[in-house]
Specification:
Helix content is 24%, strand content 24%. With 677 residues, the chain is an alpha+beta fold. Strand 18 and strand 19 form a beta hairpin. The chain is globular and about 75 Å long.
């Protein structure tokens, strides 16, 4: 694209509900870098509130519509990736502006090969926009999405700002804290070659601090003239060299052990743990210490809880006054920014032990009295939307409000996996610490294995389905549905960490449906059909992975549907599909989907390999797509043992993805446009 050009996304691909944008640049020295930001704007060109400004200190939208994925090293610089779920963008947002900024006296003229690329949901590149002469500016508007006639379009902007990120933010209605920019206000992390225990502050791209929940400013033109922006530039922040991040190799180095029975020495041993108290104490100390020493990891876990970016310190087994019986939370997290402290109490459970409401309530009361910001609970359980694990009553008469947050051990492992395997951290010592943390969490004796039990209602519900005595409205069915949803969310976390891609459960309920009502409908369906269904959207794959647990037959089904091309001949489609699945299991079921019909031709891959034409309808019916499915028996018990249901679900998803999905070319999502005739 050229500067000022625009194009409708729907004309480029049929899979633009979710898109990924990459901003990249390089420099002759390899040290030049910049930071991206995103602003959601109304029709008058202003943010609705400061929460519509996404940058390094606010990287993810609560509804998942915007997510700043961070930097990845390239051959000559770095690349910042942003995902947009355009279907989740609120109706009041008409424009999405994407910008990048440099820090202190750095200018974009010092960088080279500035470019923007956009890919659709399958990873297929849609467009590219290069900025050849950015000028002596410290911020750039790369481009914007905007609505037209119910669809999204993209415009290439390439416009510079001399006043930096603060100028960009101010022009679009974001309120900037006048106190931002002091030494204490600069977000902290030591240079990448500093020692792990260094307490030196970390550089911020610009000393910008957003004041939450402020109203938008009056309307102005949405894209100001080049060089525009606020008159007052932000105070200088400390620069940082942009060294490549470290990720651990996927293939371990050859061991020097004399035989396979030797075990490598570990920083966090778990084999000697004997009691739940020891597991909780050790797990809390291990996690909090790594959070404090690895800034990227600590920020990632606390950003969602409203913590600022700053110098973090963590503590364990602290004693807090509480009348005649002092309380001892498992841990405390403190973050210092601009001379102010953000404090959270941490309550930890391991080995499947449930959180105690009275204990969490006591910590919430103490936090309110002492002016702390949050209470964070940490356990193997996964919290669901609209279904908190612990009900806590907060005194509405208190001026100070305390937030209650929950974190699953599965989420901790997910974030560690993303950093050390895919996104990278500042230096090798940090990568090693995260690897040791991950090894500890995965040790069979740590008690930090995530959701592992389908609950006490699982066996009674399965028995009732077998005897056809499960009635709609049975509370046990609702418990099973909630456990199923927790399991699916954990599968997404685990698979996303392994792949380095966003994996999310797909909800088919109408927008705005109450979560409790949606689960009640699923529970009624379970009583009638005896099935649990779920769908996973894996970024970069050609379709949605569907998972069905049929409790009547005891079978698990994993499947994916791919669209049929609109060019060429059906026999060509069938042959190409079978060739693409050359390494897939022989027992893979392939079914042809027909327009307005059910039960199209089907067969196993073993039978179809010599005769692909067998999958074509004999009556010439129109083919709309193909469904690929694998079946296996489900576990009988409710846990993660060899015969457990949870393990069977994990293994089914892993097998289907590794043996089927990875063999489907990412371009298959656009097969209607690209298949050979």
């Amino acid at each position: 694209m050229v500067k000022g050009g625009n194009v409708g996304l729907a004309s480029l691909s049929e899979d633009v509900g979710s898109v990924m944008m990459s901003l990249s640049w390089g420099s002759p020295t390899g040290e030049g870098d910049a930071d991206v930001s995103v602003l959601l704007l109304t029709a008058d060109g202003k943010v609705r509130s400061d929460g519509d400004f996404y940058f390094y200190n606010n990287p993810v939208a609560a509804d998942g519509s915007v997510q700043l994925l961070g930097k990845a090293p390239t051959a000559d610089g770095s690349e910042d990736r942003i995902t947009f779920d355009l279907t989740a963008i609120p109706a009041g947002v008409d424009q999405i502006v994407v910008a990048a900024s440099r820090y202190e006296s750095a200018r974009f003229s010092e960088l080279q090969d500035l470019r923007l690329t956009l890919a659709d949901g399958s990873g297929e590149s849609l467009l590219r926009f290069s900025i050849d002469d950015p000028g002596e500016v410290s911020a750039l508007l790369f481009g914007e999405f905007y609505r037209r006639g119910g669809d999204w379009k993209f415009r290439a902007i390439g416009q510079g700002y001399e006043s930096g990120l603060a100028g960009v933010a101010t022009d679009f209605g974001v309120d900037i804290d006048d106190d931002a920019g002091t030494d204490a206000d600069v977000e902290g992390a030591s240079d990448s070659d500093a020692e792990p225990d260094s307490e030196a502050p970390v550089r911020a791209p610009e000393a910008v601090s957003v004041i939450p929940a402020q109203p938008s400013s009056p309307a102005v033109e949405s894209v100001p003239e080049a060089g525009g922006g606020a008159e007052a530039a932000p105070r200088p922040a400390r620069p940082r060299t942009a060294k490549k991040k470290v990720t651990l190799p996927k293939v371990a180095k050859k061991s020097l052990a004399e035989n396979d029975s030797w075990r490598g020495a570990r920083l966090f041993p778990a084999s000697a743990l004997k009691s739940d108290h020891e597991r909780e104490t050790r797990a809390t100390s291990v996690l909090l210490s790594v959070m404090a020493q690895v800034p990227e990891f600590g920020r990632r876990l606390t950003a969602a809880f409203g913590a600022p970016v700053g110098r973090m310190e963590t503590f364990t087994e602290v004693t807090l006054p509480n009348g005649e019986s002092p309380r001892r939370p498992d841990g405390v997290i403190r973050v210092e920014r601009a001379g102010k402290l953000w404090t959270a109490l941490v309550e930890t459970k391991t080995n499947g032990n449930p959180l105690k409401p009275d204990q969490v309530q006591a910590y919430a009361d103490i936090a309110a009295r002492r002016g702390y910001e949050a209470v964070i609970t940490l356990s193997n359980d996964v919290e669901l939307e609209g279904s908190p694990l612990v009900e806590v009553k907060l005194d509405g008469r208190r001026k100070h409000k305390v937030a209650l947050w929950h974190l699953s051990w599965a989420e901790v492992a997910h974030q560690a996996q993303l950093l050390i395997r895919h996104e990278g951290v500042g230096n090798a010592a940090h990568a090693w610490l995260l690897q040791e943390l991950l090894h500890y969490l995965q040790h069979e004796n740590s008690g930090c294995h995530g959701f592992q039990n389908m609950g006490r209602s699982w066996v009674p519900v399965r028995n009732a389905i077998d005897t056809d005595t499960l009635c709609q409205g049975d509370a046990r069915a609702m418990e099973v549905v909630e456990s199923w949803e927790r399991l699916v969310r954990q599968v997404c976390l685990r698979l996303g960490g392994e792949l380095g891609e966003k994996v999310l459960p797909v909800q088919r309920a109408k927008r705005g449906t109450d979560p409790a009502s949606r689960r009640a409908a699923l529970a009624d369906r379970l009583c009638v059909d005896g099935r649990l269904d779920a769908e996973l959207r894996i970024e970069g794959t050609p379709g949605v992975l569907a998972l069905c647990a049929d409790l009547r037959t005891g079978k698990l089904r994993t499947s994916i549907e791919i669209a049929a091309p609109d060019q060429g001949y059906p026999l060509t489609w069938a042959k190409r599909l079978i060739r693409r699945l050359a390494e897939a299991p022989a027992d893979l079921h392939v079914e042809t989907l027909l327009e307005g019909q059910t039960g199209g031709p089907r067969g196993t891959l073993e039978r179809l390999r010599p005769e692909p034409a067998d999958i074509l309808p004999k009556n010439g019916a129109q083919i709309t797509g193909f469904r690929l499915s694998l079946f296996r028996g489900m576990g009988n018990t409710r846990g993660t043992a060899e015969s457990g249901f949870i393990r069977s679900v994990d293994e089914s998803v892993d097998r289907f993805h590794a043996s089927v999905v990875v063999h489907l070319d990412g371009r298959a999502a656009r097969a209607r446009r690209t298949v050979d005739a």
